[in-house]
């Protein structure tokens, strides 16, 4: 869902992206060696349910792990004022494609990033997630892109420059 733009409100654009790739084989080895503690610690129950019902679970787990890492890369360096756990960042399937579901400290860190970048209204923000995997190449990858509308008046009040 794209953010709605109120024509009467001076707005700028905040864009941040993160990308990550993961070895499917490595994730498969971790699943085999540390199961079930690894799955329970790193993935949400919805992610586990989805991945376990696929023909090749390791590639789907790997893509979700890459999405979690990509999401962390979109955060401001100072935003995670508390340590994040991977299970607080979930990837869910929707009719429109994969989406992130954030809980606890991950949700708080994302909110801190938005506020730090003058995106004070989360409804003026869209998060896009793209996943891919290739078993033959032994790689899964994810890209997370955040686009938000900033309130230029907030930036001016804070002493920043508004675009003309």
TrEMBL record:
Statement: the UniProt record of this protein carries the keyword Metal-binding: yes
BP GO terms, sorted: fatty acid biosynthetic process
Domain named 4'-phosphopantetheinyl transferase: residues: 18-97
Keywords for the protein's UniProt record, in alphabetical order: Fatty acid biosynthesis, Fatty acid metabolism, Lipid biosynthesis, Lipid metabolism, Magnesium, Metal-binding, Transferase
Gene3D superfamilies: 4'-phosphopantetheinyl transferase domain
Transmembrane regions: none
Entry keyword Transferase: yes
Single GO MF descriptor: holo-[acyl-carrier-protein] synthase activity
InterPro entries membership: 4-PPantetheinyl_Trfase_dom, 4-PPantetheinyl_Trfase_dom_sf, ACPS, Ppantetheine-prot_Trfase_dom
Name assigned to this protein: Holo-ACP synthase
Lineage start: Archaea, Methanobacteriati, Methanobacteriota, Stenosarchaea group, Halobacteria
């Amino acid at each position: 869902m794209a953010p709605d733009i109120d024509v009467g409100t001076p707005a700028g654009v905040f864009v941040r992206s993160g990308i990550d790739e993961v070895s499917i084989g490595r994730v498969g080895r971790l699943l085999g060696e540390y199961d079930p503690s690894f799955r329970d610690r790193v993935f949400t129950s919805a992610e586990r349910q989805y991945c376990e019902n696929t023909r090749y679970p390791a590639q789907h787990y790997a893509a979700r792990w890459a999405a979690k890492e990509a999401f962390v890369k979109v955060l401001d360096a100072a935003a995670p004022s508390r340590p994040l756990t991977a299970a607080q960042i979930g990837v869910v399937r929707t009719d429109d494609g994969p989406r992130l579901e954030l809980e606890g400290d991950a949700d708080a860190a994302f909110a801190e990033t938005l506020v730090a970048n003058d995106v004070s209204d989360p409804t003026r923000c869209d998060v896009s997630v793209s996943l891919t995997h290739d078993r033959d190449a032994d790689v899964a990858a994810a890209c997370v892109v955040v686009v938000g509308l900033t309130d230029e008046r907030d930036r001016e009040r804070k002493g920043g420059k508004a675009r003309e």
